[in-house]
């Protein structure tokens, strides 16, 4: 499914979640009607969820939904997020006239490794009226040096859009506990990798598994070129890491992550691709996950 970025706003100092929704036109009451068939009759067993703007324009948000689907607004999620972390929304994106909503809160103080490298803590929320995204709260870190966003895992997940959906409330205590555990593990692993010298031999061993080149003379030229381009891309980011932080295992890990986060999300729908990286890293950052597995096994 294609995604059209309808609204995209950022606030440097953070604002109220509901104010952010108003500024991005993301707070509205969805309407629902029976599905209109080609002969003009209305099928009352399936429904169309749509939005009506003040000027009378209408936009379909979800078509063909069955009885029991809940077409409530995003108000409960926004109010819950605001109650947990007031005035911390720094970014909000609305796709396909509000069929998908993504927003971020900045929480906690910056963590410094003491070598010029640092991380900041954030929570991303996803929700949709077309079933493409479950209502989730996902912890992630932002690394200023390379502008990478790294998922720390799903912290809470809501029910599907049934009549009980709006009864769901995230627990701040649970979110903070899960985030603290995930963040501490990441910091511990990062610190170990920073202390692990990356020799040329080890570099080649890891790259041969994460981004192997194709030596077969009969291999497809396009595949050979793609493999070389992937290797060159990772090495470009690795050289930047080495220049700043030295040749260590964390530099290589971050280089792979930078490649997938920045290069792997280029093209159409870049914004939603980056959301997918954070919300589902197992599916969208396979090279990064493999690099982490190899490198952590060696420390």
Secondary structure layout plus pairing:
Blueprint: E1 5-15, H1 17-23, E2 31-36, E3 42-52, E4 58-66, H2 75-84, E5 89-95, E6 100-112, E7 118-128, E8 136-143, E9 148-157, H3 172-194, H4 200-210, H5 221-245, H6 249-263, H7 270-279, H8 281-284, H9 286-298
Antiparallel strand pairs: 1-5, 2-3, 3-4, 5-6, 6-7, 7-8, 8-9
Helix pairs in contact: 4-9, 5-6, 6-9
Q: Briefly, what is this?
A:
This protein is α+β, with helices and mostly antiparallel strands and about 300 residues long. The protein is built from 9 helices and 9 strands.
How would you describe the overall organization of this protein?
With about 300 residues, the chain is α+β, with helices and mostly antiparallel strands. The chain has 2 domains: about 5-170, no CATH class; about 195-299, no CATH class. It contains 9 helices and 9 strands. It has helices spanning about 15-25, 75-85, 170-195, 200-210, 220-245, 250-265, 270-280, 280-285, 285-299; strands at about 5-15, 30-35, 40-50, 60-65, 90-95, 100-110, 120-130, 135-145, 150-155. It has a 6-stranded antiparallel beta sheet, sandwiched between helices. Strands 2-3-4 form a 3-stranded antiparallel beta sheet, with no helix packed on it. A hairpin with a 7-residue loop joins strand 7 and strand 8. Helix 4 (about 200-210) packs antiparallel against helix 9 and helix 6 (about 250-265) packs antiparallel against helix 9. The radius of gyration is 22 Å and the shape is globular. The model has no long low-confidence stretch (mean pLDDT about 90).
């Amino acid at each position: 499914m294609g995604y059209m970025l309808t609204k995209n706003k950022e606030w440097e100092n953070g604002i109220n979640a509901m104010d952010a929704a108003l500024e991005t036109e993301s707070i509205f009451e969805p309407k629902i009607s029976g599905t209109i068939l080609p002969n003009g009759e209305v099928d009352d067993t399936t429904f169309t969820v749509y939005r009506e703007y003040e000027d009378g324009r209408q936009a379909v948000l979800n078509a063909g939904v069955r009885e029991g689907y809940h077409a409530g607004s995003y108000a409960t999620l926004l109010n819950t997020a605001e109650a947990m972390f007031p005035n911390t929304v720094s970014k909000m994106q609305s796709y396909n006239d509000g069929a998908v909503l993504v927003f971020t809160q900045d929480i906690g103080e910056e963590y410094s490794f003491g070598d010029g490298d640092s991380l900041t803590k954030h929570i991303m929320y996803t929700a949709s009226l077309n079933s493409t995204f479950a209502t989730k709260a996902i912890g992630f870190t932002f690394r200023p040096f390379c502008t990478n966003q790294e998922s720390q895992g799903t912290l809470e997940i809501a029910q599907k859009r049934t009549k009980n959906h709006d009864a769901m409330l995230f627990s701040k205590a649970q979110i903070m506990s899960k985030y603290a555990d995930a963040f501490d593990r990441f910091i511990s692993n990062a610190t170990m990798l920073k202390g692990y010298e990356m020799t040329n031999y080890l570099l080649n061993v890891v790259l041969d598994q994460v981004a192997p080149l194709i030596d077969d003379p009969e291999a497809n030229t396009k595949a050979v070129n793609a493999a070389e381009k992937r290797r060159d891309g990772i090495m470009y980011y690795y050289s930047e890491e080495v220049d700043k932080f030295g040749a260590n295992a964390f530099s290589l890990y971050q280089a792979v992550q930078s490649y997938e986060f920045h290069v792997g999300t280029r093209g159409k729908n870049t914004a939603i691709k980056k959301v997918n990286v954070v919300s589902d890293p197992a599916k969208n950052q396979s090279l990064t996950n493999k690099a982490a597995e190899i490198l952590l096994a060696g420390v």
